[in-house]
Design brief:
Shape: globular
Number of strands: 4
Strand order of the largest sheet: 2-3-1-4
Largest sheet: 4 strands, antiparallel
Radius of gyration: 15 Å
CATH topology: Alpha-Beta Plaits
CATH class: Alpha Beta
Helix content: 25-40%
CATH architecture: 2-Layer Sandwich
Length: 110
């Protein structure tokens, strides 16, 4: 099953510090999820000032129980970074069509 997971950080003074404190663990788990095929794509959601304030992840798990098992150990959850987590079931049609080479993205004008 495919899911779009949106985790929004707190907006208190210590929010960014909490995120940065567990960011390496979050990235390490993300690398494992990429390798297993459970995470397809992830992005930081930016605040107006350009700092990270949340995350959007396209995930694929056998069922909602496996999704919940990941959420329960996600460092941004256990580290009190995400103050809200919204999960949407989704269906990405032909996801391989959206994979492009690194050169494609590097060659785009910004």
């Amino acid at each position: 099953m495919q899911f779009l997971v949106i985790g929004m950080d707190g907006d208190d003074e210590g929010a960014l510090a909490r995120r940065m404190a567990v960011r390496e663990a979050h990235i390490q788990l993300g690398d494992e999820l990429l390798a297993s095929g459970n995470m397809w794509y992830g992005a930081a959601i930016l605040r107006d000032d350009g700092t990270m304030g949340g995350s959007a992840l396209f995930m694929d798990f056998k069922d909602e129980a496996e999704l919940q098992a990941w959420i329960d150990k996600e460092p941004y959850v256990t580290g009190d970074v995400w103050k809200s987590v919204t999960v949407h079931k989704c269906n990405t049609r032909d996801p391989w069509e959206f994979n492009r080479s690194k050169e494609f993205f590097e060659g785009r004008k910004k």
